[in-house]
Amino acid sequence: MNASEFSTVRSALGLSQSGMAAALGVDQGTISRWESGKVRIPAAIELALATLQENPEPMPETRRPRILIADPVAPEGIELLRAIGDVEVKTGQAADALVASIENYDALVVRSETKVTRAIIEAGVRLQVIGRAGVGVDNIDLEAATERGVIVVNAPQGNTIAAAEHTIALLMALARHIPQADASMRAGKWDRKSYVGTEVRGKTLGVIGLGPIGSEVARRGVGLDMRVLGHDPYVAEERTRSLGAEPADFETLISVADFISVHVPMTAATKGMISTEQFARMKDGVRLLNVARGGIIDEAALAAAVQSGKVAGAAVDVFTAEPIDPENPLLGDPRIITTPHLGASTAEAQERVAVDVAEQIVDVLAGRPARYAVNAPMLAPETLKVVGPYMAVAEIVGTVATQLVTGKLKSIELEYLGEIAEYDTTPLKASIIRGLLKPISEETVNIVNANIIAQSRGWDIAEQQRTSHAVFNNLVNLKVVTSDDEVTVSGTVVHDHAHIVLINGLDVDLAPERGTYLLACDNEDRPGMIGRVGTLLGEFDINIQSMQVGRRGRRGRALMLIAVDEAPSQDQLDAIEAIAGIYNVRLVRF
After folding, report:
1. 318 near 293, Cβ under 8 Å?
2. What's the order of all strands across the beta sheet hosting 409-418?
3. ∠ CA(61), CA(70), CA(105), 5° rounding?
4. What distances in angstroms separate CA 433 from CA 203, 305, 377, 475, 498, one per listed residue?
5. Is 469 a catalytic residue?
6. What percent of the residues of the chain are helix, what percent strand, and what percent coil, each to the nearest 5?
7. Could you say which of 61, 210, 239, 451 would form a disulfide bridge with 458 (CB–CB 3.0 to 4.6 Å)?
8. What DSSP string describes 92-113?
9. What gap in Å lies between CA 584 and CA 563, rounded to an integer?
10. Which of these is catalytic: 219, 335, 341, 557?
11. DSSP alpha helices (H): ranges in 287-345?
């Protein structure tokens, strides 16, 4: 019996995957693997299915699934769920009450209010799917859900248009002083001279970050007859041009744009990415918008730049502390428009995320795959045994490569060598993509959505499998080529731990630890180099954990890898790079 025949029989019996699992005495993950075609269906199962088909008694699992709505969601989503199951809306439950009652439900729907802890998931003995009506899933224990085979789905696209439209609304309000003029009118004034605006047609809009929201803002800017510059080193130039935007590096964008809008996640690299130094390089009279995350634009520096007149105005929807502190400097100048995190607050967006999640819950309960599953599906045991340990290797390889490379991304090449090449390498590719994006994006990447996310960024990923390597039993190799650079990183498993063993063809042995940092110094191999760098780190009071050097030969090009406990500042990195014989320094965070 093949996978298609098995699925046909299950459908004819009217059973969900969980119902079939109960009838056959196996777990739901086994049913899923059989229907995927990746695992052979035992001959004994054909006999068991024949018995089930001949059995005149009602089949198990003919009951309607029970679905719990734990947080307020739009009624359109609830109605979709009522069509296929018994829905109960119980919002505001305490954690212990949810633990006590969750055993009765097949699906759980939450927003951000309810924290879905390991205790709740483990108590949900019938739980098949958890739906988050929104983007983030920080309030759900994904590890516990994955361990229990519970699929977690969200609605990553539901808020996109709402946030993009809010950005454009703020842009127009900035250009025409709409909030200020309205306040003046309400104060009984008729003051036309103070609120002379500027047309956006013909102006340059700089969009930093071309993810889903940034891309929609770029499209709308083009529709307003604006010249749109797009900066995102992790989006292919062809993708940027397809939006009607011109690819631009960061320095060019901030120096020529009339309006600058940020649409990047909050990471160590993007925190304060626009501050006093960047304002100084902008055009006089520039206007800034932030509908992404608080802190990407330094709030104090922005307030000072507006006060000085360098920045003509700003519109901010997100803040470093929310609800906003009444003493926040952005509230003190009428030229700064502020809104209370309204980017996703439209009736349509709330309806869309509820419907998106409800549709996926319907699919999961019917045994179909979900569009936006945020935790990886269970792998076949034989694949997991061989490939599983290398998923962590693949993610670390991607994370290191992203932080070592500079310039605009051009191509990505993956190579799997050894026994792992004989198995399904889809989990490894997904892990590499997750690693590549981890330092620069908040997107959740798994086997289900990895290719979709890569395609949305215009990534062309080449893959090769080789069944052996001269040195290592198994090796994951990644090559990233950009407009400025080319970086290769290779990793393997040593004593059950992920190790980086090659960087740019140089032999290294690096076992990354979470929360630590790595200085990668590309340098000339000559006496005293290690001592100079070590002395400088000592002066900075930065503790060295370990150090090693990879080189091709004597007195040639070498790579100095220094694991440190604290992250050097940018000024300190510049000081290290200024040492004679050091070509560049990169900071890698684990």
Report:
1. yes
2. 461-466, 409-418, 474-482, 486-494, 497-503, 506-510
3. 15
4. 36, 38, 16, 17, 17
5. no
6. 40, 20, 40
7. 239
8. S--HHHHHHHGGG-SEEEE-SS
9. 16
10. 341
11. 299-308
Helical packing angle, 43-54 and 17-24, nearest 10°: 100
* Count of C-beta atoms within a 10 Å radius of residue 53: 11
In a structure prediction context, what are the per-residue pLDDT tens digits for the chain, which is 590 residues long? 788 888 888 877 777 776 777 677 666 667 777 787 766 787 667 777 777 777 644 444 446 899 999 999 999 999 999 999 999 999 999 999 999 999 999 999 998 889 999 999 999 989 999 999 987 787 999 888 877 878 999 998 888 999 999 999 999 999 999 999 999 999 999 999 999 999 999 999 999 999 889 999 999 999 999 999 999 988 989 999 999 999 999 999 999 999 999 999 888 889 999 999 999 999 999 999 999 999 999 999 999 999 999 999 999 999 999 889 999 999 989 999 999 999 988 999 999 999 999 999 998 888 677 888 888 665 666 777 888 889 999 999 999 999 998 888 889 999 999 999 988 888 899 899 989 988 887 666 767 677 778 888 888 899 999 988 888 999 999 999 988 888 999 999 998 899 999 998 888 888 888 888 999 998 888 888 899 999 999 999 999 988 888 776 787 788 888 989 888 998 999 999 999 989 889 999 88
Beta-carbon-side half-sphere exposure of residue 230 (alpha carbons within 13 Å): 32
Strands 151-153 and 204-208, sheet pairing: unpaired
Radius of gyration of the chain (CA): 27
One of 132, 166, 293, 499 is an active-site residue; which one? 293
Q: How far apart are CA 501 and CA 491, in angstroms?
A: 5
Sign of CA dihedral 422, 424, 427, 432: positive
3-state secondary structure of 281: coil
- Residue 341 annotated to the active site: yes
Q: Which one is catalytic: 322, 348, 382, 513?
A: 322
For the chain, the maximum distance between any two Cα atoms, rounded to a whole number of angstroms, is 86
Question: What would the two tokens of residue 363 be?
Answer: 């699919």
Strand 86-89 with 66-69, pairing: parallel
Q: Decide: pTM greater than 0.85.
A: no
Q: From CA 115, how far away is CA 582, in angstroms rounded?
A: 49
Q: How far is Cα 300 from Cα 157, in angstroms, rounded to an integer?
A: 32
Q: What are phi and psi for residue 557, nearest 5 degrees?
A: -80, 135
